[in-house]
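so ive been stuck on this for like two days lol. basically i have the seq below and the ligand is flavin mononucleotide, smiles is in there too. i just want the complex predicted, nothing fancy, no docking runs or whatever. if the output looks off dont worry ill sanity check it later, just need somthing to start from for the group meeting slides
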Amino acid sequence: MAQSLLLYASHDGQTARIMSSIAAELRAKNIEVDQLLLSANAPLRQLTAEDLLEYSSVLIGAPIRYGRHMTAIQRFVGENHNWLNQIKSGFFSVNLTARKPERNSRETNPYLKRMLSQVGWQPDMVEVFAGSLQYSRYPFYDRLMIQLIMKMTGGSTDTSKDIEYTDWNKVNDFADRWAKYIAPSAP
Ligand SMILES: Cc1cc2nc3c(=O)[nH]c(=O)nc-3n(C[C@H](O)[C@H](O)[C@H](O)COP(=O)(O)O)c2cc1C
């Protein structure tokens, strides 16, 4: 039986990097993990309801795009909140609003607060991480929109530079706490 399921969505790779870092930390503590990417095109075809029962814990990570967590994750949570409420579960959100110290906690990040108030799922552990600004990856329209949002919120509008805001110490600390929660006897 796999110890822990790590489910995530990622459009530009930052949530994937965060989840991979958490997975590496869990594996280093001999915790067995399955790390799975959810995408809108392949919404969990690889996992049946029966498969889910094999796991004793699940950690879900999702980035924000235009004010919403990516659809594949929202759909998964909506369809499986009963199961999620019955096992050890955690959730983290990745967004650029969280680059601001006054917007980077469970109590202060608007996307996280809204998600937790709407989905009918109360994860046991919750975190929010600042993501990255990757102008070099964005197609024209997205680049323009993000530039506008950055201008409105006092961020960088220089499209020649990508900026990673993720606090990796915060990620490592969360991985540590999650490991202790799902496997209290792990090193
Ligand atoms: C098209 C687009 C829309 C975004 N919309 C928001 C937003 O509404 N609020 C926010 O805080 N961050 C927003 N972001 C920032 C992303 O959440 C951030 O870049 C994150 O690192 C993306 O994660 P990913 O690389 O795993 O896809 C947006 C980014 C893009 C590219």
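The radius of gyration is 16 Å. The longest strand covers residues 57-65.
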